[in-house]
User: Fold these one by one.
Assistant:
Number 1:
Amino acid sequence: MLTQTTPNDLTPTDLLDNFAKFVRLDTADGNAADDTVKTYACTVRQFFSWCDSQRLHPLDATKDDIKLYRRWLVEIQAYKCATIALKLTVVRRFYAGAVERGLILANPALGIKPPRENIDPAERINYLEEPEVTGLLESLPTENTIGGLRDRFLVAVMVLEGCRTVEMHRACIGDIVKRGKDIGIRVSGKRSRRIVPLTPDLAKLLNKYLNARKRSGEALLADTPLFIALDKRTYGGRLSRRSIQRVIDKYLRATGLKEQPKKQKKGKKSASNQSHQPSMGNGEVKKSFLEQNQEHQPSSGEKQRPSKESSSRSNKFQQPQRQLSAHSLRHTAGTLAIRAGSDLRQVQDLLGHADPRTTALYAHVADRWRNNPALRLGVKVPL
């Protein structure tokens, strides 16, 4: 039991196990998803690895140590502000769990804020224009196999209805809602559930997809995943969030909207692996926290830098300045819906935004050029 153990005697495995229990009990009102627990554990392992490089036991960390860790995330790892915010949040939750279990007296990560992102919030919204959406949908497979129908419905519902990756990952057959002739999907977002109404075309595509699965002999029960994996190892299982992202990336690349992944150069070691261990002064090399606890050896946490080789692929849709992803399809749905005349409240309900100010960002993006007040001045600029 932890109450019978000296805190500094706890191994990384002990700390991770107890943190996982804390996350499952404390996060999302005790209903934390498995992928959330995995993300938190991975982030804490990276923090442990940094502590190891500093010859620091995690439970001995001070506020200044957490600030040094933040600096490492900013300067060495070069993470984006949003990523740093997530990592600091997880570290703060780790220490909150340690305080709750009596391992430490105070949370050293409390009050340590991420760096501010000095850009217009609207610039973070990467979306597709209507011709690009058409090109993306035309790139989808036309065969009526389970895989072809799954991909067509998945991409279409995300780009037109703005569903999140996690919502598609969690959706089950029992989440399909029928109201007369209307069909929708009940999705579970970050903190809420809502019904996403399907357009008639999407409803027909969903029925074709489900019928193909029935013909294969699959029993479609209420808890059966709506989107299933089709590889040999996990066939019929729930399609993971990462796999959904891969599906979206595949078709973004096929349309030329996303560059092909860069190949990593072999034989290149990270700087952290080349550093020497400090001596204790008597010729003996000081063992680090992780070396003293061989039960768990997390990776160094070094962020792999992509190759700087430029892609020779060119396409009329390609815009290198954008970093498109599965989440960009959600931005696309919101931006194009407002541009087409939907009001903010309708788009907020569709996307499941808790704060209308989040939805307002899409209006800002959609209207910035069309409703530029300078256009109303009627002043001609000499050319």
Number 2:
Amino acid sequence: MTNEKLLINNVKLEYSSSDEDVAYFEEVNGKVIFRTKNIGKTKITIKGIDGVNIFSEVIEIEVKEKREVNLITIADAITKPDDQKVYLEGIVGASLVNKTGFYLIDETGVIAVETTSDELSKIKLGNKVVIEGIKTHVGKTYDKNTNELTAVGQIVVKEAVLVVNEGGAHEYSTTSFKIGKTLKDFLNLNKLEDHSTEVYLITAKVIYEETNFYTRYSLEDNDQNRISVYSSSGKQLSFLDNYRDVEVEIEFTVVNWNGKNYVGSIIAIVVEGEKIVNNSNFK
């Protein structure tokens, strides 16, 4: 293995398992493939040899029995009644902002997933995962006098736990993403309607604002229509820093975590054909 940027030159990597009935390595078309076999624990040794020095690391892994779960699509989960347990499979597509979680994406839709820091540490952007959680709305609000619903809030899978992580660096599907709207269409959305699982492809300029009291990002179109991007600070959206005052293509959705109003949320931006995904929780 050679990597000039990391000053690595002609390092040979060797992999071994202390119990090949549990997990083992094999070479396929010149690539080393890691495979599992039977339930149990084994110690994996990774050894690096540069001709003079030998470095090694040992980690223990456990192969568990596969759980049989009733997987449904994200589109089906969105339409389920609230407070239902769901099992979903999809790609970890982008980070939530100011929340511990991510957007899960399959070919049928997109849904926000809230989890714990421990669970989030087990996954990376692009991983293909199966999760278990409770589909619900958060941020619902009611009139204090009449108790009538005034905002549906945000659709989310909360208390999510990882069932399986198949890993990988997959590109998420954009099949469910929509076109035909502009930034103006997202201003003053009806809070009694669900919009937080819809992703649209739009074009807008990235605007950064800094005062003595706050920093934040917004999006602006050619008619000076502007919508804020949800965050507690502009620092949470640092993936936008290099694109201030630049017009970009945006995979755009909205959120309403507190029931007040819908505000913007960005899955990714596209600049000269390069996709820059919101990685706020995955730095």
Number 3:
Amino acid sequence: MKVRFKYRIYLTPVQKYGLAKLFGCFGVVWNDSLSFCQEKYKLGDKKPVNPEVQKQFITQAKKTEHREWLSKVSAIPLQ
């Protein structure tokens, strides 16, 4: 027997803001790492391994001046 449920979630303004900030950061990290991988592919290099990409676009990016706002969200969803 298959059962199906429908849920609707009503977020508070603070929760909406937090999710928007998280998904915005996620999009930036995704786009940066995707362009890096595409550039490696065009040059004929191997695809970079996941820890290398995480280190460059999450850990080191948080330390730069124009990406320091990435440190204001949890790093777990960005991985």
Number 4:
Amino acid sequence: MKVHLAVQIFSTSVTASLRYLATHGYDGVSYFKECLATVRYLETMFKFFKLHDVSNKSQHVRQHDHDVAPYTNTSDDRLLWLDQEFPLYIKGIQEKSQAMGMRGLTKETAEAFLFTSKSTHLCIKYLISELNFFYVLTREFSSDAIESSFANVRLRGGSNDVTDCKAAEHALRQILKSGIIKNVNSSNIASDCSYISFVTPHPDQNSVDSTIVITLDDSTLIKLEKL
């Protein structure tokens, strides 16, 4: 997913600057003293992102950061953080916000955080303990394929943010008929492909390579756009 710029809001350079201003102030400005709760929130969210963005076996060495090391055992302290500490923090935000008459996180956002944290914890433990994985890289837990499908459904419905059931059903039928999905440039998907094909070889084909490369001319692409 293309979230690099968004994650920078939670980066250590931002939180370190805010923490310094909260502790030492700046030219007589005192309102930064009240931002420590915000600093903790930013640090917590940044750690959450990092734990879900472990991409290779040497990343933690280059960055000197244990949070981006591969998961290799079920006793990893990061799994405990995902299973207990982070959910308690999210629930605490909701409870304190409600007690103070504030909104806090939306119900959907809070549930998504809790679900993602719990599922990541369980998935990593399952892969290591049950399937004997040597290590787990959480960046591979990608929902881009699902999001690409949603984006294509919206595109076929006129790029409408509020797609109704009829438009969604029509889009899905066309995808199933053509077996092709177009990647939307403005979607939140990191992909270099313009089209994704679900075409697979027929069982009777005597082909060693199970991959079929399809070249479509411009007229065919125009017709597909109108489906």
